[in-house]
Specification:
The chain is of the alpha+beta class. The chain has three domains: 75 residues, Arc Repressor Mutant, subunit A (Orthogonal Bundle); 153 residues, Beta-Lactamase (2-Layer Sandwich); 94 residues, Enolase-like, domain 1 (2-Layer Sandwich), CATH 3.30.390.60. The chain contains twelve helices and ten strands. It has a five-stranded antiparallel β-sheet, with helices on both faces. The longest helix has 19 residues. It starts with a helix and ends in a 6-residue tail after the last helix.
Length: 343
């Protein structure tokens, strides 16, 4: 069966109508609201063909039809006009994300999540920066008391982690500076995966005479990075989903909230590298997300992909508008983060 121009126009009209009101669409509605130049009976026949081809679904024999995942995919890939943002929306995005002070990566990420949730009315998910991919920019040792040293570690992702280590005795400030310099000489600009046995053996030689500090500092670095790597994902705008009438169904609402509470599932849903990606309904390969569309993109510092931001909503979302907002926010976010690549 051929997907001709008339079928495409009818499918386009049905998807636009269904996105707008969430009600299954009948042939009479299309004939009245859209000037297609064909009769209701012809539209009805074409809708039956589109259903046979897998682009439409009919919930009940007496009801109208709604787009299928396949129908939405064709719409997004081939039919959807690119919707420009308003000046107000562009200014709001820029207002959130530019002029962010150096060292406040966590703040700018939360701002990006906030503006995305606010402008799209969807649930926004932030997958924390991957410390395994981040490089250590600096490590500093500070004396707390006669047996305690504070380890301050900064990554190129702007993550600052503090950890305490216990030693038999704490050297004076000048010696701590020398030890800090030795550590930075060996591990600066390395990822956790690059701190191998050779690096550790060289550090052990450098810190000869300070074995208790060496024995405490290496596990501390690994533990601190693992702790950061295992931070939970952050969500914003969870309640936005209830603006969509399909989630007034208590079972669907509970399923959606259960999905968001399962951090491992969420991480898999928005696990992406690079450009904007969209998964519609069954394309997510996770049954809990079969009624959801998920738009994801990675955020970067320089050439390093650190983490992912995702938007999750029902399959009935205004794709053109939302993808334009997502693209703009990610561009501004990555432009703001670029300053850290030279930090």
């Amino acid at each position: 069966m051929e997907m001709d121009e008339r079928k495409i126009r009818i499918l386009h009209a049905i998807i636009n109508d269904y996105i707008g009101n969430g009600e299954p669409v009948g042939s009479r509605t299309i004939a009245k609201k859209y000037d297609l130049g064909i009769s209701s009976a012809t539209i009805r026949n074409e809708m039956a063909d589109l259903e046979d081809m897998g682009y439409l679904e009919q919930l009940h024999t007496s009801s109208g039809r709604k787009p299928s995942d396949k129908g939405y995919r064709l719409y997004v890939d081939k039919l959807m006009p690119k919707e420009a943002l308003s000046l107000e929306e562009e200014l709001r995005i820029k207002g959130y994300l530019i002029d962010v002070a150096l060292g406040e990566v966590d703040k700018i990420l939360k701002q990006a999540v906030g503006v995305l949730s606010e402008l799209t009315h969807l649930t926004c998910i932030l997958k924390n920066p991957s410390v395994n991919k981040s490089r250590i920019k600096s490590l500093q040792l500070l004396s707390i008391d006669s047996n305690t040293i504070l380890v301050v570690m900064v990554t190129d992702g702007g993550i600052i982690k503090n950890n305490l280590i216990r030693t038999h005795s704490v050297p004076n400030a000048d010696v701590l500076v020398k030890i800090s310099n030795a550590l930075n000489y060996r591990i600066k600009d390395l990822t956790i995966e690059e701190i191998n046995l050779e690096v550790i053996n060289n550090l052990k030689k450098d810190l000869r005479g300070y074995d208790d500090i060496f024995n405490a500092i290496i596990p501390s670095i690994y533990d601190t990075l693992r702790e950061t790597e295992n931070l939970e994902v952050y969500t914003e705008g969870t309640a936005n989903i209830f603006d969509y009438q399909e989630f007034n169904d208590i079972d669907k609402a509970k399923e959606f909230l259960s999905l968001l509470s399962n951090k491992d599932l969420v991480k898999n849903l928005i696990n992406t590298e690079g450009e904007l990606t969209l998964k519609i309904g069954g394309e997510n390969y996770i049954k809990e997300a079969k009624d959801c569309s998920i738009i994801s993109a990675s955020y970067n510092i320089g050439e390093t992909s650190l983490g992912t931001i995702g938007l999750i909503g029902p399959t009935r979302i205004p794709y053109s508008k939302i993808m334009s907002i997502m693209a703009k926010v990610m561009k501004e976010l990555n432009d703001s983060l670029r300053q850290y690549s030279d930090y």
